[in-house]
Structure formats: structure tokens, C-alpha cells
Amino acid sequence: MKNVVKAMVVILGQIVVFNQVGQSENYKKSLLNSPALALLGFVGLVFLFNYVSKLKTKTKILQKIVSLFFAIATWFMSIYGSGLDTVMEVIVSPVGVIYSILFVASFYLLIETMQKILTYYYHKDETIHYNRWFIRWFEAHSFLIPFILINLVWLLVAFSAYPSVFMGDSLDQLTQFFLLSTRTAAHPVTSTIFMGSYVHVGQLVSTANNGLFLYTVVQVVFVAFCVSYAIHVTYKLTRNSSLLLIIMVILAMIPMTNGTVILATKDIMFSGFFVLYMVSLITYFVDDDYYKKHHLYVMLFFSVFFMMLFRYNTLHFIGLTIVVYVFFGLVMRKKFYRLTSVTIMMILGLLVGFGCNTFLANAFAEEQTTPKRREMLSLPFQFTARYAKFHSSDVTEKERIVIDKVLDYDAIKKNYDPYRSDVVKATHNESATKDEMTDYFNVVKKQIRMEPLTAVESVMASHSNLFNLNKTVNDYYSNGVKMSADDMETMNLEKIGIHDNKRSLRLNKIRVRLYKVFDRLPVLAQIDNYAFYVFMMLAVFVLWFTDKQFYLAGLLIPTGAFIGTLIAGPITLGYIRYILPIVLVTPFLLVVALQTKKKPSLDLND
């Protein structure tokens, strides 16, 4: 009976929509009318809950907190996705409160169920191994088979999008490389030179389009190599070939990966180096002998070094990781300090990478040799803009004067975009003094104390998609190389020689339609939702933490710190390229978590 009630709660929560729930006369329209689908879902849920009950697995308090957090974040994002500006439009009515409780309870029960299943297999002593011919074939070629399969799929997608799928940031980099705009270090110089060189070679040999396509192919093959190497090493560490085969197919086939690795942007190369970085960490934490015997400290150094060259936020999340590792290394007396340790290698990678970035920026940039201050102030700026929009009557004249010295108050109030901070950041006065910035932050702290819900919503509106397990918010960049270019951008593309290919645009449209179908199918939609990978990442961390495997839990410090840098940035909604590193590495963390108690025998000569 208990499982029947739980199934009923889940079904009721799943049929709630919020676009009209705040209007009492239309509250019935806020429940989807699909009796047949609800009945099928109810029957399936009863079977699911009965199955999980037989596992006799319980979750701990920290796991329940994670489940509740994701359920609430999903509630926030679902409200914003329905077109409402604030959750107050929902919870202002009793019906809205009831529907919200049902919605949150529904997702809480589902997420708890996932955590119970994960916990059961985490504690299960044996690993199921299937002795099939394709399993044996994979085990004999644990790098080559993934490398071939992943490349076949990803390169096919790349050919369908010839010459590439282009980003506004990428065009900005190319116009700087070809001296069509002022050179700055707003984008990593290494990435600018790397991409520009391929396009330039294409101009000299044949066409700029071919150069851009060659760049895309090199990028795709590199990331496929990194993922295949991660599969190979994880197999050597865990011997869990069955699960790794599933992961190989998923990473090759889901639109979130094969539709993103073809983007001509610095974030994709960075993602490949991030995978190599995490593979190095996994070997260090799981089997230190493997780490030393295969000299993975060298790969760790170079992965940090190249991440620094392709993404500036590397400094922040690696720096935080080093601080945590040093602190817990002292507390736990672990070997974080020998010459080849991960701590030393990360410090060296940061120092050398920072030095190279400084040299390249000074040699390349004509102005702005360092990123602007505004790049890491999205959170307070977004809060200020939301407060100005919804609580302008509470802003005193003195506060307005203080804000105006840092941001254009009238502009941010009028143009506030809850999903991205670019519009607000563009008004920032980079010449604001230290005292003016201090006064501004004091105003922010005061306003947060007055309206804490506004502070929460300013973050949730921009970033709750990272934790939204309800509906994927993927953006597949379907507009070709020009995107939605203005006249100046179109003119610059023509000067460089890059243009859309009509046949590829048609193929692109077909590909994106198939992606959208993929996102509407059960199970497939879940594994193509990047919030699912963030959830699995946190679930693995909590499993290790609650099991007092604190040493292994350290593997999740850099991924958590990386998520933090994204939240501090301008936008994550639908921008898969930002979250791609987490999508690519989380499956391997999961395999390690499920296998660490089994203690497989390792052949270090492999």
C-alpha cells in the first residue's frame, strides 16, 4: 500500500504545469489531462517501488539532502520554463502551494529511488560479468574499439555540419587573428592562434572553409582519443568491461556529446584536456602504483598546462583543488607532497601555464592583456539587476548612486535578463575604484538580507538548469557557421572566406530534428540531460563521503570546483559546451565508485 501511495504522489506531481497555476480560476488547466499515460506511469511506478523495496536499501541524511536539493532546483527551473518571472506567482495562491509540494515530493521520491539503486550496487560485493564475444573483443582492445566507434559517429556528425558549427566567440577570435579587430586577451590567445592558423592554412591551400573543417576534425579526433584513453585506463583499473561498453555507446551516440564536439570553440579542446586530467587523478587515488608505473604524473602536468592555455577559469578550480588537497593531505597524512604527486604537478602546470599565458597575451594583445573584472562578478550583478527590477521602490537614492558608480542602474533595471548576465555585465564600469566596489558590495549584502528569496532566484534563474532533472534544456546550435550574425559579423566572415554550405544546412536541420526527437523519448531524454550527470557526480561524492571513503571523495573536488566557476560565470542555460567536461568524466567516476569495493586484480604490465 505504501508503494501505491508513493506512485500516486509521483503521478500527481508529474502532471503539474505552472504557467497558469497562480490564477485560481484556471487551476484545473495546470494539471495535464492524460489519463491513459497517467495509468501506465502509475503501474510502472508501483513495479519500480516494489523492486526497490526488495533491495532493502536505505539512504542517509546527506543523500536525502541531495535528493531534496535537486527536486527543489527542478521546481524552480520548471516555473521559469513555463514563462513565469518568479516563483511568487505560483506560491501566492493555496493551489500553487499544494501543486508545488506535490511537484517537489514527486521528484524527491524519484531521485531517492535512483540513489537507493545506486547505493545497493555500490555495496554489492560482486560485479556481474558477461562472457560474450563482443565483451572479450572489447577487453582485448579497450582503447582501439572505443576510438574507432566514437570517431565514426562524431566525424559523421562533423561531415553533416561542414565546415563547422560556429560560435560568436570564435568569430571574435578569428577577426583578431586576421587583424580585422583589436587584439585582446579576452579569449585565451593559444586558442585564438590555434584556430586561426588552421583557417589561414585553408586560405593558402584551398578555402577558409576547408581550414575550419580541418580544425573541427582535429578537435573531434583529439576528444575521441581522450575519451577512449579514459575508457582504456578505467578498464585496467576496474575490469568492469560491461559497464564501460555501455558508457562507450552512450558517449558516442547522445546528441549532447556528438552535437557539441563539432563546435569550433575553445571549450571543446579544454574538455579533452579535462578528461586527461581527471584520468590522471583517478589513477593516483585508486592505484598509486599504476600512476607511477605509467608516468601519469607527466600527463597530469601537461593536462593542467594546456587547460590553462584554453580556459582562464582553470586557474580558479585547480587553485581551489590544490588548497583542499594540501589541507586534507596534512590532516590525513596522505602522500600529496612527493615530487610526482598530483599536488606538485598541478602547481607546476598552473605556474608554467600562467607564465605562457602572460607571455602570449603581452606579445599578442594590443589592449586588455588580462580578462576584465566583470567576468567573475555575474552573481552579484545579476542579483542587483533583479532587485532593481522587482524591488525598485526599496532602493534608496544613496544606494542608487552607489550602484551607478559600478553598473548603469537604469539600463540593468530595463534590460535585465534572468538567464544570462551579459547585458548587465556590459554596463560595468571597469574603472570603478576599490572603495566604490566595497560600497557596492555593502549595498548588495544589505539587499540580500532584506530580500533573500530574490538572491536565491537570481541564481536559480541563471543556473538551476544545472540541477533540473525534469526536462532537458539542450541547445544544439543549429544555425550553421553564421549563427544569427549581424551585418558586421557577416562582413567579417566574408573577408575571412568562411560561409555556410547549403547542403550542410539542410543536413543540420535534419540532425537537430532527430536530436529533438531523442530528447522526447523516455530514458534517452534522461541520459541526454546534463543535469543528470551533475546529479550522478554529486551522488558518487556523497556515497564515498558517507562511507567514510574521504580519500576517494577527493576525486570530486575539481569537478565540484569547476561547477562553481560555471555558476560564477555569465550563462549555463542550454550551453552544453560549458558543461561538456562534467558529462565526459562523470561516467568514469561512477564506474570507479561501483568497483572500488571489489578490489580487482590489476596487471600493471598492460
Automatic annotation (TrEMBL):
Keyword Transmembrane: yes
Protein name per UniProt: Uncharacterized protein
Taxonomic classification: Bacteria, Bacillati, Bacillota, Bacilli, Lactobacillales
The UniProt record lists the keyword Membrane: yes
UniProt entry keywords in alphabetical sequence: Membrane, Transmembrane, Transmembrane helix
Domain of life the protein comes from: Bacteria
InterPro entries: DUF6020
Residue ranges crossing the lipid bilayer per the database entry: 34-53, 65-84, 90-111, 142-162, 212-231, 243-262, 268-287, 294-310, 316-332, 344-365, 530-545, 550-569, 575-594
Provenance organism: Vagococcus bubulae
Alphabetical list of Pfam families matching this protein: DUF6020 (PF19484)
